């Protein structure tokens, strides 16, 4: 244990621990022991990530949250299956292959062969799984990679088929057209939540186009419509107005044409109206309003189409007329909206409602899967729609139909995978009827518990409340095929739920469910014998697969049906805020559709991890440090604690700062490690005396030492708090309290008890007894906190446990495999993670001790501030510390003036401490009250001003009386002084020798008597001498048990230090085991100097030397005898012992205490070599 380094290499220790856990199969053993005990099952679903990229901070954050919660569950009597999973299908994979093979359209895939294309996809989906395993394992996360699941596994895909079949049988599946966000880069529709993942500010052309009204050609009357998608104009089938808005017909004086548009939208074509300089009188120069009417008047009017591409189709008799709908607004454009039902959700809805198009009928859609115009629009044939704007706008101008051209900067959706602009496009798709079960989905959400709850009740609830039917199909290749077999016109459809059912109906048994296999399987028609049903073309959206994960990862219902159902819904899930429209949504929809239950009970939602500058982390910008580098520098525990102790675990954003991770190491782990190392050093000192340290909780509990009582109360309070908060999944409240506790343990308990734990407080057996009790307390606390923090910081707690366990009586039971057996036992068990988290001990909870210690710490903090204000060093004692507390409880006053008083004196180097009683407060402070506006504002309203004036104007005596009474009566209102009034103490004592500071909340004032005299100055100098001795001991690498003598040497004729030491002999005797620093002239010539240096002590420059303890001799002793004694060691003699020796044939009998002495201090005292000793 003494070999522990002063500073632990945390990353190195963690790397060794990872190897140890792997070699000893620690994770698997934890699971095995749990199953053996029959622990209650705790179900956890881990959302599958894509393994086509490396893990980033978002994954590390979510993984840390998941690992912390599941470790906590495992250490509180639960069996937790933790399986890794991989999302293998979908756009991310296909897009990468398309880039690799330069595939730009679907036909190229068919030419290549779906089998070859899918094989390419299969080859990359697990490319980074090893890197994931390495990073996740190094992070300390325990998850089973050997027993992982993949969404491309036949067992997983079969369960997805089963899920879909249940929806099909319940009438929740249909095929239809839907205008959807469409990625031309990936040639597939996207869900609404995918479309919202990647918005960018872009410049798009914005045009106003005219539509001549049929029958009003003579008057040259036109509708004018505004659009930011000119490429949709060839597909225009109608115009739409708002029936309730006011419209006008105007004469445009520049062109002589008449335009119809919204009355409030004249500013769209006359942009000068948007200027601050615009004056209504200018209007007559631009236009003249000839007629005004409601939009309803325009309904049914027909107009001349821009193009005749669809003017002669079967349905065209219904085209090119004015419709009305409330979605048209007057906040932009002209109040007249052009309708292209193939390319707009509202366009499709409105045109369907007014008979422009028919449900189930064809829709003019001259754009292919790659986003290029088809032969139907010859002017832009083969051109991508976004590029076609540059062709179409000049044609409109030539036709005389272009009224205005502008550029609009706006936020526009881009494909989250290909980073190409999305379009809205009508596509045939398979849908799940979410709207039909929406009310049940909303109700099931109410049964779940979220952290933070605001996400559940706000963002997620709103999304569910407005949920629309879900398009679950994709026109792609690498995915789970939709298991519908049908004839060409879909009048006969069969939905397959399993491999067995497909084999039964087709006569073909397959073991892979991907397209290259299932597309070859045909099923004989029952309606039309002799014909065959073929599988429909589409595959499932990968979100449908991840939403099916609870069932598919376990191959439900084909395997372990009863066991699975007992664990559903899951106890816990956790993912990022972006999954409110993703995985959380699909889980809830499918579980409601299948079982009318939520898929999970508890959910922690994390926020985004951003770069330090607040921007999104970007590989291209390199604006964040590599996670693996951060772990290698500071350790995984530090990264884990930094992330979990931040706003990001309550769905807020975190600006990642590498310095923050370093801060955890400096402020938490190093002090914690130092306390642990200090404990082990003192155990060694204890056992070096021939004693055996065996932990004894009973002895710890029996301690009467006030700091022992306090730290045990803090520890039990911490245990109680952690259990309460973790049961509520509030990690964000747990970590700050854990961090604060480590500070209390290291900065206060260990520091206040340093001498005591070293056996230096008191004398002999009393000192040993105090040290023993303190060490039992410290061991108990360290072990409890080590186990308690196991789920949060798994590495450092394991490191501590491996050392601490060796003191336990059960430690020998670990031999021969006992450490991996039940029941778990502290000491016997080979890992801290096999143990059960400690329950709190109610008998040791002591709120009064905790409160008194909090006040002590405040007194010490304010006392130090006062010293600093007056520039009085802590080494210089002060005569008096006075504290004035606002309404202190009796137990607080009793604590800090009784058992805790000596600690205040020691910490502030004061000779006395005094708490001012209430009846004397007016001599020291003025009590001021002020109303709490946040509490009283609504309650008092207009009376607030008068109440404030009254409360602020109270005298000290009146304020004291009000606090004592508890209420104030003002303006007919009763004010609660405890909750609705703030109180503050201001120091008012006269006298320049006082220096005072107050807590910011005004509850405490500490005043320091800064009077300096000979006694205080010499005491301060003596402390500086002792500090120098301690620095030399440290430089000489001495152990606590090593005894040294100290000597000082001042400039000739100066005796400031000697005078100071002479006044404080008892201080040194207590600190230096009876020795006192002496002038260098007293040192024996043979004394062996261990270390020496110069120090500033007061106004004197002093050389201090520490020497090994040596015998000192009487000045009158013959020189030959002196030489003999100089070779002997003091421990060889006892006080008063005679020593016989023969020198030059002469016999001598020398007596300790007369002829020689055990130390120079003993000689100086006996011979009065210095008068003051």
Brief summary of the model shown:
With 1173 residues, the chain is an alpha+beta fold. The chain has 42 helices and 44 strands.
Main pleated-sheet profile:
6 strands, mixed
Looking across the biggest beta sheet, what order are the strands in?
Answer: 12-10-11-8-7-15
CATH superfamily of the largest domain: Valyl/Leucyl/Isoleucyl-tRNA synthetase, editing domain
Please tell me how large the radius of gyration is.
42 Å
Q: How many distinct helices?
A: 42
CATH topology term of the largest domain: Isoleucyl-tRNA Synthetase, domain 2
The helix fraction, in percent, is 25-40%
Please give the domain count: 7
Which secondary-structure class do the elements indicate? alpha+beta
- What is the typical, i.e. mean, pLDDT? 91
The outline comes out as elongated
The CATH level-2 architecture of the largest domain is identified as Alpha-Beta Complex
How far apart the termini lie comes to: 41 Å
Poorly predicted spans = none
CATH class of the largest domain, named Alpha Beta
How large is the share of residues in beta strands? 15-25%
Count every beta strand, where a strand is a DSSP E run of 2 or more residues.
Answer: 44
From the structure above, extract its key features.
1173 residues, alpha+beta, Rossmann fold, Isoleucyl-tRNA Synthetase, domain 2, 7 domains, six-stranded mixed beta sheet, 42 helices, isoleucine--tRNA ligase, tRNAsynth_Ia_anticodon-bd, isoleucine-tRNA ligase activity, M/V/L/I-tRNA-synth_anticd-bd, ATP-binding
